[in-house]
Amino acid sequence: MGELKKALNEYDKLIQIDSLQGMIYLNRGMAYRKMEQYELAMADYLKARDMQGTRLDLLYYNMGINAIYAYNNNDSGIYYYNKAILENPGFRDAYSNKAYSYFRMGQWDKAAEQYNLAFQLSEGTSVHYNNLGYCYIKQNNFDQALSTLNSSLKLYPKNPWCHRNLGVLYKEKGEKQLACKHLQLALDQGFLKKWNQDNIQDLLDYCNL
After folding, report:
1. Which domains, ranges and CATH numbers included, belong to the chain?
2. How far is CA 99 from CA 76, 95, 199, in A?
3. CB 195 within 8 A of CB 169
């Protein structure tokens, strides 16, 4: 937090020198967002939008993030991510964030489509592949789910969410031994220390734990 406050002071100084450079407001808005001061962040984003030198793809991307975290508004987030992609069709993170918005809404087909568009641009993270793997589970595409979740584990072998999802996959396939094995791995890797038990209760019941 101390570094962010220092950054804010520097941005304030730059604005006093030249108050017409949009990127200064955009960067200050990003700092406010990281400090969870979302109203101040949006105020700076709106200033940056109408000023010279602003990277509009980055601006709309951050406005999308703000919509999600400040207002829990997935539709608004998707709206801004689409605007970011229009400005920069090669903006992978805009696709992956858009995918996650659909994921949060339970729109598995659209989420999977956007994740795959993102991966055409560059490799995803363990979290991205884990989420896509879960989308495939919800689509009953179990072979693709297994391949994708294994890709997630290769990038981050101690990913408790991925083991949870592998447990869900094997439960859906009726392979109880493997389902319970991955449930135990998720528990051993601290799943319940970080996330609510509701996220794993079905597996706990299935494995009689």
Report:
1. 123-209 (1.25.40.10)
2. 13, 6, 20
3. no
